[in-house]
Structures
1.
Amino acid sequence: MPKMEFPAYFDHGLLGVKCTEDIVHREAYLYVPYKLMITVGDTKVHDILGTICENHPECFEEDTSEDWE
């Protein structure tokens, strides 16, 4: 992550990630391996998380926002 600093230490003992350069709109700056992803489909069939999907379907609807196109 050349544009990110990790670990980054902040006031009051907070730990996180800090940008070291500007990141332009839609620029990829973080990659998550596929095997670590949790999809909505995985969540819906999970013993515990599936209940959350059932109780809050509005949170799991497909996003039609243009930001993802």
2.
Amino acid sequence: MKKSTYTIATLGSHSSLQILKGAKDEGFATLLVTTSNRVDFYKQYSFIDTIIPVVSFAEFPKIESMLKKKNSIIIPHGSFVAYLGIEKNKKMQLPYFGNKKVLDFESDRNLQREWLVEAGITVPKHFKNAEDAAYPVIVKTFGAAGGAGYFYAKNKKEFNKKIGSFKKQHYTVQEYIVGVNVYIHYFYSPLTKKVEILSVDRRYETNVDGLGRLPLSAQEGLDINPSYVVVGNSPLVIRESLLPEVQKMGERIVAVSKKIINKKGMYGPFCLETIVTPDQKFYAVEISCRIVAGTNLFMNGSPYSWLLYNEPMSTGRRIAREIKLAIKKKRLREILD
């Protein structure tokens, strides 16, 4: 079948504009499922061919048959798990770009840690409980929540005070690494067997970034708990001397995924979330196994994607390019789940 017979579809949230713009640039029909209150906003974009309104994203399973008639290929992003949950994602009957089995790893920080360690990537120390912790620490819930629920604790007393709200949630206690947060956006193609560095960003988090601009004397006495909720992203170009290690980290992550997940492993876009310390050492704190919102900075490409493609290439467009190549080579089944 020709690419024109397929429709690229996604939920109206997170990185949908980038995904559908990239799909249209590669010649695909596009479809957006979004809540009724967002329809007028998305209507202004001519690259979106069809908009299907729903009362809530939880209704998505009810409209799968409608999307199937349009020969839709689903491109997942962070909102799919946030609004539908892992099980509904797994049960989706539509062609799905990516390996659904990585969802178990993305939602479980302990499995992620094992994955990173096996890939030979340095990770922050992990503590089973407050008694064993070497403070300061950062406490994180499981799953993709954009930093919501994270908290910092400088000692056991502060940990015990703040942990109450986490009683019914899975969480992990990590060593707090001081450095620059660096989020590396990769793409792995099972068709070319290559790992590509597409872009890099850093996050702005409230209110921890605001507190960081205050001198210590001004922070003392303030009754403000640091918040790590992500409110935006900024582009970043890292030192060229660090790029070989960045490349190797991505390649090792993909190689290990084929051992611990299944033969297909992780493919398509993924992000290694790291902190770089003054000695230029990478500490990996998380893997996002799909397109991340930080790639929205690069809808016209990044310095790194220009080096590879010499044309505008967002992560969204790179996904569509992979699907187009798979159709041409009659290997579409290899990249859909």
